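pipeline/complex-builder :: batch 7 item 3
reading input block
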Amino acid sequence: MSAGKPATEADAGADDLSVLRRLLLRPEQRRIAELGERLENPRLRARDVSRVLPEALRLSARDRADLGDALTPTVETIIHASVRRDSRRFADALFPVIGPAIRKAITEALRQMLQNLSEVLEHSLSRRGLAWRFEAWRSGRPFAEVVLLHSLEFRVEQVFLIHRESGVLLQHLSAGNVACEDAGLVSAMLTAIQDFVRDSFAMADDQTLDSIQMGDLTVWVEQGPEAVIAGAIRGNAPPELRGVFREALESIHQQQAEALRDFSGDPAAFETDAVQHTLQQCLQARYHERPRRISPLLVMLLLGLLAAGGYWAYTGLREQRAFESYLQALNQAPGIIVTRAGAAAGGYRVQGLRDPLAADPLSLLDGEGPLDPQRLDLHFAPYQALAPSFVLTRARRLLRPPETVNLALADGVLRLSGQAPARWTGEARRLALALPGVEAVDSSGLRDPGRDELRALRAALSEQVIRFHVDTTRGEADAPTLQRLARDLQRLQGLAREQGQAARVVLVGHSDATGTPARNLRLSRLRAEWLREQLLGQGVDPALLTLRAAGSSEPVSTGTGPAAQAKNRSVTLEIHLTSQQDADR
Amino acid sequence: MIRKKICMLGAFAVGKTSLVERFVKSLFNARYQTSLGVKVDKKSLAIDGRLLELILWDLAGEDEFVSLRLPYLRGAAGLLLVVDGTRPETLDTALALRDKAISEIGEVPSILLINKADLAEGWRIDPPDIDRLVARGWTILETSAKTGRGVEEAFLALGKEMLQ
Ligand SMILES: Nc1nc2c(ncn2[C@@H]2O[C@H](COP(=O)(O)OP(=O)(O)OP(=O)(O)O)[C@@H](O)[C@H]2O)c(=O)[nH]1
Ligand SMILES: [Mg+2]
């Protein structure tokens, strides 16, 4: 197509078409767009699949086998990984399945063991059991066997599968722990006996002797066309047992038809599990239900109970004694008062009062004694005991005295001695009177080291003279002297505060008598100011210090010589102490 | 293991029971034999590396009071015919018994034992008779239950023939 007009026409046509299409097909187009979105957007697709996945799995599992095949490797991998990561979780999950099985096996084993044990016990202790024991000793047979034989109703001791024609033994089983005589010979002899009887009494071939008494055994013989089953039975077998034999024989004829027909002396063909199993069915046994009379075992049990009762009474008595002495110990312990005590269900019950400072009641019990602490039921309500030791302990807890203080209590008087700050002493005197058991406080034995020191320090500081050269406002004092002075002032302030007092220090500036009074006044002020600057520089509290210029009006030394004059060019300290309350006011 | 029944056959008092007793350490007292007419014993042999269990049926010899009980022969895989070397007529009895047995149970390996070899000076069986039997294929051995001579060999020989 060439470019130009027709193209525009075509465009216009196409435009119309798309308009038309839009008009007609808009809903469908939207739907298609939506579907496209759902197919292409992984999140939407995942959501869609997740909606149908459970149902799909269900359907697939119901109708097809290959879903399981397909999933197996994945599931196996997951399980392996899970076990590797945290085998405990897996064990926990499996436990409900395996646990009961294990428990069941163990229970079964235990049950059997108990059964055996109880039978042996019963038989060993009964009168009959003793007779059997004697019999076992006499006959040289194991006791268990004698017990077995006597409580036996019947037991098929041995089963012979015999080749009918030759009397050769094909297979033989015997019940546990029964002596097995030479089976091959027995088999031949049984056959000979059969032959003999049949021959002697001119019986037909299919008529046979089906029961032979041999000593204390009865032999039941079941004849088949090719083979014979003979069972040696102790006791009286029920007639139903015949049926069991017959069925076994028939089953063997069926299983081993060929081997029986072609038998030429090799019994291996009859050593199969199937034959063994079939013959095993014939090895039946039944035991007498033993009448439950009062057995010597029971008597012994009762005796045992009596003995236990005696022992119990004995231990009970011992325990009672132990309890009584324990009560005594409780009553003697300071701070414990027993109000009620006696035997109670499961042991003994004690009620009373106990000072929290008293000893632990259980610690008063003789741990090695016959009274078990577990059997004691102790109930103590708290109270405050007035025993001096408790009052003192409580006083110590409340007053928290410094280590230098001693506390003593006599006739309700709390005596304080040693060293303590006056402040603590005042507080302690107030608090102590609130303590039960304290009627008065005597603190005359207390000394306050801080007060003494304060007094000494005050005296020393009042003596201090900081000198200046003629006509200078710069002190002669060197740095260490100033440092010491500053430290003393700080200590003074601290000690005063401890004593409940406020200290104030006046730096008094002086000059000698030479020069004019005005000049001297100014000089003395500058000197005091200099010292203050120095002291503040050493960290002294500004609130502590005030200044006074004395000029030459308050000479430190009244002498007129040069030495006295030098003393007067100085700053001195005035120490004022006022009680805190006054200072605050 | 192979189990085979063999029967001892022969006239009375030729030494069947004595031979078995020589061969087997008998477990049972054989009082029942007189009433039953048979005594059963068992002996295991190793032949060419195979275990053979022989069930020996020692049948009472015929006399005027006792006749052979044919049922005892059934299932026998071999026969030991015993002759008393000092009594020539027992050879005839043995041969007759064999014929009877064969007709009852069919052809089975048989060996002829001329017993009481310790009394050889008193033997009265004609050597030509024996040679004739040998020529007819018989295996014939001389035994003595008294000295034990040839006893073991006799049972072994029968065992071998039965296993072939
Ligand atoms: N000298 C000698 N005497 C023997 C020998 N074998 C058996 N006797 C004797 O012959 C007698 C009969 O022996 P048995 O073994 O009872 O003979 P049997 O063949 O079993 O006889 P029945 O059972 O009656 O048929 C006994 O007195 C034996 O001691 C032997 O080899 N030499
Ligand atoms: Mg005999």
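note: The first strand of chain A starts at residue 152 and ends at 163.
queue -> next item
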